[in-house]
Design a protein that fits this description.
By secondary structure, the chain is mostly helical. It contains 20 helices and six strands. The protein folds into three domains: 100 residues, Orthogonal Bundle (Fumarase C, Chain B, domain 1); 249 residues, Fumarase C, Chain A, domain 2 (Up-down Bundle); 96 residues, Ribonucleotide Reductase Protein R1, domain 1 (Orthogonal Bundle), CATH 1.10.40. Helix content is 63%, strand content 5%. Helix 15 packs across helix 16. The protein binds arginine (ARG). Arginine (ARG) binds next to helix 7.
Length: 459
């Protein structure tokens, strides 16, 4: 004999290990509020359609309130014997209100139920993530505005390329996070359809009103195809794609913060509250938070791989494989939320070492392109100018001087068109200020961009 809610046709009880292995309560218990919300909507719709009586509805709604309270107070503990959140809640409801509780599952299956709960839960968590992304953007824009004029080296191949402003560099991440935000928002729109009423896979014989349940739960519409509704996990794949890309942006940022905080760069310091020391080396202050955030990307991308592989080749409609869908995204979301929170809290305390950045910005012949541009403005074709400046750099390396320190004679010896005025005019400030066009690194552009973002955040 089986004591399960589905045990009618079974003669033997479930194997003890299988019972534990099969259960998902440890993962899906956190969707209890969504499960109860779904049941409220379902029962309300059934009543409006004359499928449940008003008396039953009252019992169900009161009973669900009690179950919710019992869960929140810790009074009700879920048991693996009841497999998942759905059956634990239904069983407790039935223990409290009797037959009315047993009627709740009319015209419903756990297949449409779990799809609905997961969408509702992830919709909320996605909204939370989006708030965190916006907050982090706000922190970055503020920092960028403060450092609109702070000059640092820009790199390509991690070799000094041209001077940029720290503000401009930070705003690059604001752009990335705005695309992350848009990706979550876009996925959220597509996800916001209600599976309820699809029942096990084919719909139900009862005269239900799926539009009503969808509306009660804040969905834009019911899912259009019952088979698709119960077997679709695109939303998890999409949300994890968005989460993965966001975590990769965070890992790139982390990597830069870690480099910048090293003694060799000496560009920044991060607040003590976000760093740790070494148990053996007394001098150490390690950028643990950026390191950890960098590491989390691996795990979040792993979650994406996990759901992709779980869904690959699954026939329609529901398959138990799909129970594996939640653990990875819950873990990924918890961790991404943590990363965004840590960055949002840590970055206001970032101290830029402006003098070191400035010094580094001027090293490595970072103004060479600007010298070539000056020659071009004097009528020299760009390729010739490139050659002339290349020779100048070689000369400076030999003499151990900077481009702007080249004497008149040296300039003229390289090319008669290279003048002392041109080399003397070279400074990192001029370099950045000159790039004063849309998307350029000039302080004026950085300020304009910051103002644009602030306006956008306030709209
Ligand atoms: N615990 C299951 C899951 O997370 C709920 C759906 C189970 N449906 C079923 N027919 N066994 O996927």
């Amino acid at each position: 004999m089986s004591d399960k809610p589905w045990g009618g046709r079974f003669e033997a009880p479930t194997d003890a290990f299988v019972e534990a292995f099969n259960a998902s309560t440890h993962v899906d218990a956190r969707m209890y509020a969504e499960d109860i919300a779904g049941s409220r909507a379902h029962a309300t719709m059934l009543t409006a359609q004359g499928i449940l009586s008003e008396d039953d509805l009252k019992l169900i709604l009161d009973g669900l309130n009690q179950v919710e309270q019992e869960i929140e107070s810790g009074e009700l503990e879920f048991t693996i014997a009841l497999e998942d959140v759905h059956m634990n809640i239904e069983k407790r409801l039935t223990d409290i209100i009797g037959d009315a509780g047993k009627r709740l599952h009319t015209a419903r299956s756990r297949n449409d139920q779990v799809g609905t709960d997961t969408r509702l839960y992830l919709r909320k968590r996605t909204d939370d993530l989006m708030v965190r992304i916006k907050h982090l953007q706000g922190v970055l824009v503020k920092l960028a505005d403060e450092h609109a004029e702070t000059v640092m080296p820009g790199f390509t191949h991690l070799q000094t390329a041209q001077p940029v402003t720290l503000g401009h560099h930070l705003l690059a991440y604001v752009e990335m996070f705005s695309r992350d935000y848009a990706r979550f928002s876009d996925a959220r729109t597509r996800m916001n359809q209600c599976p309820l009423g699809s029942a096990a896979l084919a719909g139900t014989t009862f005269p239900i009103n799926r539009e009503q349940t969808a509306e009660l739960l804040g969905f834009d519409a019911p899912c259009a195809n019952s088979l698709d509704a119960v077997s679709d996990r695109d939303f998890i794949m999409e949300l994890l794609s968005a989460a993965s890309i966001c975590s990769i942006h965070l890992s790139r940022f982390s990597e830069e913060l870690i480099l910048w905080m090293s003694a060799q760069f000496g560009f920044i310091d991060l607040p003590d509250a976000f760093c740790t020391g070494s148990s053996i080396m007394p001098q150490k202050k390690n950028p643990d938070m950026p390191e950890l955030v960098r590491g989390k990307a691996g795990r979040i991308v792993g979650a994406l791989m996990s759901i992709l592989m779980t869904m690959k080749s699954l026939p329609l409609a529901y398959n138990k494989d799909m129970q594996e869908d939640k653990e990875a995204i819950f873990d990924a979301y918890d961790n991404l939320e943590g990363c965004l929170r840590v960055f949002g809290d840590m970055l206001p305390g970032l101290k830029a070492n402006i003098a070191n950045m400035h010094k580094a910005a001027g090293s490595g012949f970072s103004t060479a392109t600007d010298l070539a541009d000056a020659l071009v403005r004097a009528g020299v074709p760009f390729r010739d100018a490139h050659e002339i400046v290349g020779k100048s750099v070689a000369h400076c390396i030999k003499e151990n001087i900077e481009l702007h320190e080249m004497p008149h004679a040296a300039c003229q010896a390289i090319d008669l068109r290279l003048t002392l005025d041109m080399v003397k005019a070279l400074s990192v400030e001029t370099c950045v200020a000159a790039r004063n066009h849309t998307g350029g690194t000039a302080p004026e552009q950085v300020r304009l961009q910051c103002a644009k973002w602030i306006k956008q955040f306030n709209d």
